[in-house]
Amino acid sequence: MLDKHKFVKVWGKPIWLFLITIAGLLFAIMGTGIAWYALSWIALGIPLYAMVKHGRAFFRQ
Fold it and tell me: What is the pTM (predicted TM-score) of this model?
C-alpha cells in the first residue's frame, strides 16, 4: 500500500502545477485589468518555467 509520504513525493509537484495552472486560467477569466492579467501571466508562467527547466535536464541526458 502506498503511504502518504510516497504519494506526496510522487504527486506533490504535479498537483501543485495543476492548481497553479487552473488559478492562472481563472485569473485570466475573472477580471479585466492589468492586475488580473499580471496574476494570470505569473501563474501560467510558473508551470511553463517548470516544463522548460525539467525538459532541458531531460534532453541533456
Answer: 0.78
